[in-house]
């Protein structure tokens, strides 16, 4: 694809690629809300229903690193048009599914098509706009890809509550249709290459990443290493990863080139974006269960909690991309964003059972401000030394890191909540005895004693509730500490050249 004339920005391509990216990022969160309804519709167990999410994520993570390879072979234009069409088609098939097996199969295929959308959208914008305008273009791009996933739960809750779970899939159709129309009309053809297919590398990559993603998604459900399935998957993942690394280092043209990580900025920014994804998406993952199960908020209200986060993220993204990146060191901006992410988690970690809507919403708004400050500056740092011809490959790898970080975060918080609940229940039960003055005072207004059946039941319920609360608060505080721990890594990055603006952001 040829670069545009200096100073020229094609708004149609901006809108087209943003819509393409929104397809993927919106779907990644909107389906979560509908999962219990899908489970009930097909009479599935919780373990079986999680495959609706796992199948999509595993296929997407396996295919995403191949973006550069496939784009060189068939061309960006043809690939993104095929990806949008395939994604929309599989969305329709998911909405029409007649059994658990069919929706899992369609989600698997949907993930394969969706894997290309973010990396391609990023690299198309990177090549399509002059350097001095990239910050503004990426601000608009980031506005879509950052706001969409945080608003996904709200949209999903409304569609599920007032229509049907099937609507969370059909809602993709108008977005896909508009994206296809704009892309077909404005995106120029590009050159292709005769690229040899590295079947061995492809197989090792699929085994290594696919099995790792499976372990992260299913580990907590299957009690980690006590499960033979998890043991086998983990061993396969390690062997696949080691084999893939050896293969890449000894092959002239591997399917995915890991030598990108020899670039200091790219390697460090991958570590930072992984830590950021864990801190951000780990907290987002447990927020609905925290407010619904523990604080008794209805589904719709819990969805509304994401609106302040989305609004703040959008404003922060535009301000950062259009103004701040031209005036401040991106390392400082990203560090401030990570600090706000930590503060947001610490605010959540200080709540109690009486937390009102805005006490829950304000931390989300702070987190949203942090999101905008992290994404665009990180793009400057990570891709500072990556040549234009290799943007597709680098973007694919960067997004795999983000996706794996998100999966690690979701797995970690799930494990921390469950294990913390067990530990806290045991500790509180030891301290709350029939002879405990606090327990006696708690039951006195009810004319009950701790050694009565009704009194013991009330105390047991209170212990369970407080143990769960402590568990959630501990998780939020741990995520805050992790966000703080990643900040020093930013200052080992090389400062960008003067005048450089955003290129390829991580969503």
Automatic annotation (TrEMBL):
NCBIfam families linked to this entry: efflux_EmrB (TIGR00711)
Superkingdom of this protein's organism: Bacteria
Protein name, as recorded: Multidrug resistance protein B
CDD domains: MFS_LmrB_MDR_like (cd17503)
Domain (Major facilitator superfamily (MFS) profile) ranges: 13-498
Mode of membrane association: Multi-pass membrane protein
Compartment list: Cell membrane
Pfam families, sorted: MFS_1
Keywords for this protein: Cell membrane, Membrane, Transmembrane, Transmembrane helix, Transport
Transmembrane segments: 12-31, 51-71, 78-98, 104-126, 138-159, 165-185, 197-216, 228-250, 271-291, 306-325, 332-348, 360-383, 469-492
Sequence similarity: Belongs to the major facilitator superfamily. EmrB family.
InterPro entries hit by this protein: EmrB-like (IPR004638), MFS (IPR011701), MFS_dom (IPR020846), MFS_trans_sf (IPR036259)
Cellular component, GO, one term: plasma membrane
Transmembrane helix is among the record's keywords: yes
Organism per entry: Ruegeria atlantica
